[in-house]
Amino acid sequence: MVSNGHGQEEVNRKDSLVEEEPARKGLKSFLHVTDFKLASIAQRGLPSNSNSCLVILNYHLPKSTPHLWEQARLRVCGDGGINRLKKELPLLMPDKDQTQVTSNYIPELIVGDLDSVDEDALEFYRQKGASLVDQRLDQDCNDLHKCLRYLRSSAPVQRVLQADGSLSNQQNKVFVVGGLGGRLDHEFANLNSLYLFPDLPVVLISDRCLLILLPPGRNTIIPDLSVEGPVCGLVPLAGPAVVSTQGLRWNLDKAEIKFGGMISTSNEILSREVIVESDQPLIWTTETTTWDHSHPKPYEQNSTIWFP
Question: pTM to 2 decimals?
Answer without folding.
Answer: 0.80
